[in-house]
Amino acid sequence: MKGRTIIPFVVAVIVLATLTVYIYQQWQGPLLPGYKITRQQLLQQVVASGTVSSQSLVKIGSEVTGVVKARHVREGDWVNPGDVLVELNDDGQLAQVRESEAALAELALSMRPQAEAALREAANAHQLAVSELKRREALFAHGQISAEQLEQSRSSEVAARSVRDRLQSQLATLMPGGTQTQQLMQRLAVAQATLDKTRIISSIAGTVQSRDVEPGDLVQPGRTLLEIYSAMSREILVPVDERSVGKLELGQPARVVADAYPETVLDARVSFMAPAVNTSRGTLDVHLKLDNDADFLRQGMTVSVTITTATRADTLVAGNDALRNIRGNAADVLMVRDSRVVKVPVTLGLRGMFASEILEGLEAGDLVLSADAEEGSRVRVDQRTLLAIEED
Question: Measured between alpha carbons, how far is 36 from 278 in angstroms, rounded to an integer?
């Protein structure tokens, strides 16, 4: 009988204790989520999505019109600077080069020697004419010949001198550096340059991404034959919401993660910001330069970007969900003091994605709510850990 009376008593004690705890908790108020204000590192960041920039894609074309004789590369092939990509039919250009070379050879081996020989003959003839003129001038002085004979000799000297001077000028044009030689050399240079353009070579190192040419095709300047993804260019293009532009500066560090390789984080820096906002999208194009090469990136890949625009090494922070009535750099928080809710104005500093710096209004150890509650009401705080640092 005694054991039967103890059981109801124990049950009654448990019920009474549970009821007492419940009443005490109700008196303390509901359990609401919140934070304890602490000092920690805070990052201000801009997050956006972008793509591997098209600036690393080089379009290869022809400078001359011609028919394709051979194509030496296809998609996926690696090329180095100087590698021949496409050859055009060069029969006509080669004939022009040979014609110009033949003209130069004829000038050096035939025309120039003939001109030199003719000049020597003319110089000798002029020397003879000068000697004859002097002889007749002496005879005329002694009255041994007539004035008409002297004048004939003078005319002969002038004619011989004119022939000599003309041949001397002609030879000058045929000598190295002369006008005729230069013209032929320029003609050869143009023909050689045109011939060289029939061999389309790569100016960069990279991978052939696409091709639009086959042997037998007629190609013209302006048509893209091949596209090469440059191995020397690794840029990320990110359209950033214009509301975040004021936080950005050249040289700021960034982290880049390609959607196709989520486990790999790449370091980069802001290298260029477009001078104008895209009004249709409300964004500004920002270019990032990777610190290290990333061969696995492909043209047009989608990437996620986090740009760190400012940092605080040790400062008071509060979760953004605890801020209310934000007014520029001012806001209100619901602080719990002696288990009661008190609205406190605070001054904000650096604004992060999940937390903000508190310059005035709170101290380390204060409790603030991240849920709504009436001022003066009793509450209990379910303290949660605030991670102001965004981890990779």
Answer: 42
pTM score, two decimals? Answer: 0.52
Task: Give, for 96, the enclosing helix (H) or strand (E).
Answer: helix 91-106
Residue type, 26: Q
Q: Which residues contact 335 (CB under 8 A, 6 or more apart)?
A: 341, 342, 343, 344, 362, 366, 367, 368, 369
b or e along 171-197 (b: 16 or more beta carbons within 10 Å of the residue's beta carbon)? bebbeeebebbeebbebbeebbebbeb
| Residue tagged 């050096």 (tokens) | 108
Task: Tell me if 284 sits within 8 A of 240, measured CB to CB.
Answer: yes
How far apart (Å, rounded) are the C-alpha atoms in residues 120 and 4? 152
Beta strands in 252-323 (DSSP E): 253-258, 266-273, 283-290, 302-319
Q: Could you read off the pLDDT of 200-247 as tens digits, one per residue?
A: 999 888 889 899 999 999 999 989 999 988 766 568 999 999 988 888
